[in-house]
Design brief:
The structure is a homotetramer of 401-residue chains. Chain A is α/β, with parallel strands linked by helices and 401 residues long. Chain A folds into 2 domains: 131 residues, Aspartate Aminotransferase, domain 1, CATH 3.90.1150.10; 246 residues, Aspartate Aminotransferase, domain 2, CATH 3.40.640. The first copy, chain A, contains 13 helices and 14 strands. In chain A, the strands form 4 sheets. A 7-stranded mixed sheet of chain A has the order 2-10-9-8-5-3-4, sandwiched between helices. In chain A, strands 11-12-14 form a 3-stranded antiparallel sheet. A two-stranded parallel sheet of chain A has the order 1-13. In chain A, a hairpin with a 4-residue loop joins strand 6 and strand 7. The longest helix of chain A is centred in the C-terminal third of the chain and has 21 residues. The model of chain A has no long low-confidence stretch (mean pLDDT 97). The interface between A and B is large, with 67 and 68 residues. Chains A, B, C, D: Keywords: Aminotransferase, Pyridoxal phosphate, Transferase. Chains A, B, C, D: Its cofactor is pyridoxal 5'-phosphate. Chains A, B, C, D: This is alanine--glyoxylate transaminase.
């Protein structure tokens, strides 16, 4: 079954799915259960309460949907919008592109604001669109918080600020797939209307749970939204929430217990410490890239992502070969360049339950691979740059002081 | 976390989710992996090939969708039909009701053929509808193979026979959620166009994978079907099948390995032996019910289900109290009566990776509970009736001869 | 690897190793750890404190030795006695025989008090030996609390009473392998000097930990005992206890976490509730045996064991065939008859993390097997007798009320 | 339970217990089984046959004893020797010291050949002792193949050569605890009489199985050896080997399946590839130590160990502080300096199921810690030196080519 076995651990540095911590693997190592017994609703109740914390919301209503991020997107859109609705959506990389594709196929009228890959959302254009939209034809702004393909983090506070400036009532829908639980995300403060993530990203669970959180305004919208939906319909969930049985259909028992364990670990570390750790990992990676003499796909510091770094390779190298070699020789899993940047970048995912020495293993591996493929890197240079920063910043592990 | 702990094993006899065998639990006890490495497509390829065997199809195309049975339903409908399409659907219990509800909400024109709960699909009415439908306004027949709420198995061969008799081209869509891998199901022979099941049923996996299989005719239909869909769109899968990377979005690594192990166990036992085992379990249960002097919710033998038995309790007993007591006192999980039969029946699920002695534990528990709640059962009577049958029919375990 | 796979759960009714509860399997599902980090001593400290409770001792000193019950025996003997020491030992079945064999090979002067297999320790002979032993040549009394081969429980309180009556200073060494955590055992009250058990018995862990508890008097004896020992030497443990690092050599990290989980479950249920549960299981089994018209190998009620029942088969039946058939046809694991009772008895182990419905599965299986092998049992008779008793006595599960 | 949780994986670099690979963790994730069923002997048979391969023996007889390395030592000695027997034993570090302590306490007449810690066995003295021993009073030579405290590998071929030169019939007993499955070990070629290891070392299992292999000559010796033993007695095993039931007492079911998986992984990689990998890991570590300007505790290249490196710290640094800091800040587990080298060295274990990037994570961590404690290391220097070597030597993973 494991016919691609290699000795030692796989070094998993794709930007999802990410490493699952042992306590979570343990929590999920279990038989099925009757989800209609009193035990599962009692567990679910704690999950719905606690999962709000990772969105930094008290007023939001979360949904734990047996789906992926793609399904979570669909849930966000179809519950709040009607076919033909005008939405503004930012195209800055492969995942925003896929979301836009979904938006179009779901029959929304998508007003795309495109940026060069490697840049963040163009908020100037948004501003002008909002300014012109006196009649509020724009029903929603859709934005990917962190574009996983290019390692670009968008400024959500700035989006909110613009909406407020123009007193625009558009819904604010955010893909937080590679940000929530890793980057600073403030649903209530930024008045995000729908935020969503997938279990296999910074929560460090297996794939299979789309986590969607809706503001009261989004819930209101769901009452009149005309998009056809059943599986993704929030109202079915809400009906069962009221009954106290919570599930309109069968959840994964294992993922529920896994989520409980994952949240417990995050709260034990402290969400802000988790975010600070991701910042350390991101900075360390960027310092290594710089030391190698390579360029970050992200064009400006303001967009640097703390969860994924897309590294541009010299034109004489095929970045896919780096990824293949990483896997074949070093048991290291890196992310491919996608679509427009295929062959041009490889990606280092540094999110989820990950510590600094794990990252340094990856960076040391990348150095060797760069040399393998003919790039004249100085071995140790990236690790040294990263370590110099990390050695000054890694905190003691609180439980071990 | 396990705050409803009781000593010993939970006896899980709800009709899903069902017991996961140890080898499957083991196979899923793993970290995440990069689903874009060569390993996952190689695994997926074997799964897509082998999963067809449980549908008894060679011409079908399977989809392993990260969803539940409800999502699998939606996938079957939206990929093959367009809003407004007339479909004939049988209402015989809670799950067929829920599917019909979905069909209506997805904007199909649902022509419902209702039976009394406890009866199978009324094929006479189907026949007359087909007879009258000279212009082929009926685009699909939707039928639940095994209605989990009442323990009724419908005769799919007879449905196919009717369609053929009238040379009717309607698509034949089958919910096999509580049948496939347990009851005799023959996709190719019966020319079923879409069949579907959920991982947590007879496959004995955790919840989270909707397994849908489409005939060539269904695939054809998907090219012109106008129902809006993205997450559930087969065409996205087909595109990635062609690329050999298989996944339009992230699958659950754990469920893929789990499915591999589950299929291996089923093939080791032999699919026909698995079906024969379910037949033994079903018959044994029905003999026990008879011995207790209780009535099966299923009104005729031709509809008896080998995967779930709904037992009617005397009017002076609340069947929900039986289920509560089972859990509270005996660590036994039984199924509640749903909707029209709430309070009137309790259900014994006997599907999945389950052997005869496990069933006898359940039956002995039910006897004690019946006595607990005031029904004058003779303790041991049901077990004796079941055992008399089983002792004559259980085969030796082939690997142990 | 699992080349004797059979569908469904194995019904494990040998008197050890017994079923491991899921929370314990989970707790052990982990990588190795540095046992010299602060974490392992901190864990060990809680274990040493809490494991005393299962011996009902506050003054005893426990040792968690990486060994089996046989090693725990050796530890008890070699730490407290010197070669040539006279010890009185009761031979009542295969396990007491094996212990006596060990005692002899360890060069003690073993004064064996033999009983017919099926009877308990002959305390009259002990009394006369004690009476005659004015000079206290007897250094220790060795007794198996529960003889696993015949299902005979000895009366330890009576042994203590005799020792007191004669004011005899002999050490009181008890094999509690199939009793501790299942039968009433009171180390302090009965002034047992060394008691021991194995992890795979009523504690419901994997094999691999011999748990030995020594009274202050036994610890004193260990200072002068001349038996050669190193691996089993308590003094090496005591040295490391003082240092606070606890381990003279590497423990199994997995078993330590497993023991923590096992103790937590036992304390959650309540040790006295655990013992009461075993009493229910024992009585139910004996009622079934009686209903089948078979005889218990244990000759008198006072010796009935609540953890294992040895059932005598009619002379025309080979009990080994029952055990073989149980495994081959019913996925049921029963205990063989050993040595003098080989072919004559089969054994039902009913200890550890086990509930009543699990037992009834076993009993229903035994009934079918008895019929298979030609014994004219009335199917359901044993289950009915057991259930009649159990239905009156099973308590509600406290966490579910 | 995991009250010293830190984010990400623990980097486990003590020289045992070592990392358990996922397939082995999975194989052990199981309930108990009846070890007297046909399944366990069938499994055991394959294990006994295959475990001989890791000793490179065809004539040896292996014993899988539920114990630790300390117990395996005791098994080797007591089965082959009688109290008072003269044995020659080399003292070169803490583990040879502990073995000698055991030898003395087991009442052998131990002729100790001591070397400075950091040096290998002094074979010149052995030669002179053998030369003088015309009457063959020396019954055994006891040697630790790899002294885990100092990282010194002894030359076993040279020992055999000396014995042959003097035609000396002494038994050749080898502690292979931190060598077998990692260093080149040739039982048959070197005519080793007893070799042993522990499951938690290079086999990468949990602690709990002492694996002892006896030559025909050692088995012969066991017939006349007068040392008192029962638990460790090979003859009890041999009796059950003949019966085909294999086990004189209960084995750990989990460790048996774990050993099966561990051997499968080793054979898949190829034992010689495993040894070559350890050589790479050892050399890379030594190159890093050199680059840091630190000294290896091992004084000459001929003794360099490929499984553990003991690094001497400058006199102004307490090596225990390095180990504490590694754990507290970097989630890195290093080995303490023991006894004579306490405070003076820290140890990096690089054995078992471990790959090169894992090692580089450790080395990068050590660099940061060295800086933390005031040693003026150049960050990245050790990693660079190691990587320069590794990048030239790591082979492709055969299953992924």
């Amino acid at each position: 079954m494991d016919y691609t076995y290699g000795p030692g651990r796989n070094h998993l540095f794709v930007p999802g799915p990410v490493n699952i911590p042992e306590p979570v693997i343990r929590a999920m190592n279990r038989n099925n259960e009757d989800y209609r017994s009193p035990a599962v609703p009692a567990l679910t109740k704690t999950l719905l309460e606690d999962v709000k914390k990772i969105f930094k919301t008290t007023s939001g209503t979360p949904f734990l949907i047996p789906t992926t991020g793609t399904g979570a997107w669909e849930s966000a859109l179809t519950n709040t919008l009607s076919p033909g609705d005008r939405i503004v959506s930012f195209l800055i990389g492969q995942f925003s592109l896929l979301w836009i594709d979904q938006q179009q196929r779901l029959k929304f009228n998508v007003d795309v604001i495109e940026s060069e890959w490697g840049q963040g959302a163009n908020l100037d254009i948004l501003a002008s669109k909002l300014a012109m939209d006196k009649t509020h034809t724009i029903k929603a702004i859709c934005i990917v918080h962190n574009e996983t393909a290019t390692g670009v983090t968008n400024n959500l506070a700035a989006v909110r600020k613009l909406l407020d400036e123009f007193s625009h009532p558009a819904l604010f829908l955010v893909d937080g797939v590679s940000s929530i639980c890793a980057l600073d995300f403030r649903m209530d403060e930024w008045r995000v209307d729908v935020a969503l993530t997938g279990s296999q990203k910074a929560l460090s669970l297996p794939t299979g749970m789309g986590i969607v959180c809706a503001s009261p305004k989004a819930l209101d919208a769901s009452k009149s939204a005309k998009s056809v939906r059943v599986f993704f319909d929030w109202n079915d969930y809400l009906k069962f929430y009221k009954l106290g049985t919570y599930w309109p259909y069968t959840p994964s028992i294992q993922l529920l217990y896994g989520l409980r364990a994952a949240l417990d670990l995050i709260f034990e570390e402290g969400l802000d410490s988790v975010i600070a750790r991701h910042n350390r990992l991101g900075k360390a990676t960027r310092l290594a890239v710089e030391a190698w003499g390579l360029k970050n796909c992200t064009q400006k510091e303001e967009w640097f992502s703390d969860t994924v770094t897309a590294v541009i390779v010299p034109p004489y190298i095929d970045s896919a070969e780096i990824v293949r070699r990483a896997w074949k020789r070093y048991n290291l899993s890196l992310g491919l360049g996608l679509n427009k940047v295929a062959g041009k970048v490889f990606r280092i995912g540094h999110l989820g339950n990950l510590n600094e020495l794990q990252l340094l293993a990856c960076l040391s591996g990348v150095e060797m691979i760069l040399k393998d493929v003919g790039y004249p890197v100085k071995l140790g240079s990236g690790v040294a740059a990263a370590a110099a920063y990390l050695q000054n910043t890694i905190p003691l592990i609180p439980s071990r002081i």
